[in-house]
Design a protein that fits this description.
271 residues, 4 helices, globular, alpha+beta
């Protein structure tokens, strides 16, 4: 996906986070991906247009009425804000992971999604943990890499804002990548970057709107190293679930960073 890069100077590793990064540090488990969100990082990788391998059988999933469907039953009290009050950071216990075209998506018994398939995820808790899960899962599915059979209904049913412009951008990005890789129309593409952490501006997710900053990291083919970027995502609580707001102009803002300071990394991620 084409991205809009902010002219911010990357942070220096080890340096204190600037004031704009004085966000509540919040802990999440595992590495997640928001393919749509990290499309700017994926765009740096020449491999981003390669087709996605089939999902391993152990990770395959479908809806509750489909073969392979998965329903996650939230634990008692998960409807409470963050499982214990608005000032409490999410308690990421019992999290498992689902392969999504090469990336790992977290499934939380507390925060959701309660129902998920390769093309759909829904049922997120009305708290910060649920907002994080929604950002990751909806962002993953509302991406060119996910393919039109996935991003189409996700954009139409689970996003707010200028969905027409955003859908047109996804269609353009997908066709460009598909044609360059020579795969049949509709084939998902492999994801080569991961969201490794996030930060929130003191939000607790109990209101109608929350903005998160997801931190992604992917391979940089130009240097042989890695590149990291910050993507702000806004979600709206609509009709009993979180919906992802489309970015202005159909392009996700991308802020390159060189330090993980100011973000909470998922356990197991080296900063």
């Amino acid at each position: 996906m084409t991205n809009s890069t902010r002219n911010n100077t990357p942070e220096t590793a080890g340096a204190p986070a600037p004031k704009r990064r004085r966000r509540t540090a919040l802990v999440v488990t595992g590495v997640v991906v928001a393919a749509a969100v990290i499309a700017a990082v994926i765009g740096y990788n020449d491999n981003w247009g390669k087709p996605s391998p089939a999902t391993p059988p152990a990770a395959a999933s479908g809806g509750p009425d489909e073969p392979g469907g998965t329903v996650v039953s939230p634990a008692p009290g998960s409807g409470d804000n963050n499982g214990g009050g608005s000032s409490t950071a999410p308690a990421w216990k019992g999290v498992t992971f689902q392969d999504f075209h090469g990336a790992q998506l977290p499934i939380s018994p507390l925060y959701g999604p309660q129902v998920y398939t390769d093309t759909h995820a829904a049922g997120f808790a009305h708290n910060l943990g649920g907002a994080v899960e929604a950002a990751v899962h909806l962002g993953s599915r509302a991406s060119a890499q996910a393919g039109p059979d996935t991003y189409g209904p996700t954009v139409e049913q689970q996003m707010t804002g200028d969905t027409s412009t955003f859908r047109a951008q996804l269609d353009s990005d997908y066709q460009e990548a598909r044609q360059s890789s020579g795969v049949p129309d509709g084939t998902p593409l492999r994801i080569y970057a991961q969201v490794i952490g996030y930060a929130a501006d003191g939000a607790d997710g109990s209101g109608q709107t929350v903005t998160l900053h997801l931190l992604s990291r992917g391979a940089n083919p130009n240097t042989g190293g890695t590149v990291m970027g910050d993507f702000p995502m806004t979600l709206d609580w609509v009709g009993g679930d979180w919906k992802l707001r489309t970015p202005d102009g159909g392009q996700w803002p991308f802020n390159p960073v060189s330090s993980t300071a100011g973000y909470t990394l998922f356990p197991g991620v080296n900063g």
